[in-house]
Amino acid sequence: MAAVPIVIVDDDTQGRYCYQEAAGLGGVAPKYLFKLTRKGMRESEIEDFVKVDQYQAHIESRYGVIVPSTFDKSPTKKWSERMKRLFNDKGKDWSLEIEDSIKSYIANHVEEHGMSALYDFAKDVFGEIAQALASAVSNESESMEKVS
Question: What is the pLDDT of residue 140?
């Protein structure tokens, strides 16, 4: 009974490298490799799939930075680059600790609210990921039944 590896990466320089490494090593079936690509962006991160209104109030109350509702309209740079620029433009510090804290908040929020926290266009890729997970679990269950 071997675990089924599933790889999900941001579509940025590091993510693309990891994707190519995973694909090149051959230990991950292509159907279990996912890159989170947002159409029209040269790089994107998982946060680019989360609706701005899902984290605006948190950032304003915790950091005093108002995230405009237009923050995610026609973006060309990935979420962390846009957020850093927004903080800097507002005279606020931006650090890895702040970035990690906000990303953790977003992840917990999405875990709690599910697909409703995501933009409609994100539901395609996350639906595919959910199907891959279901397939992997089903395959693992079948393998376990054969062993029993």
Answer: 60
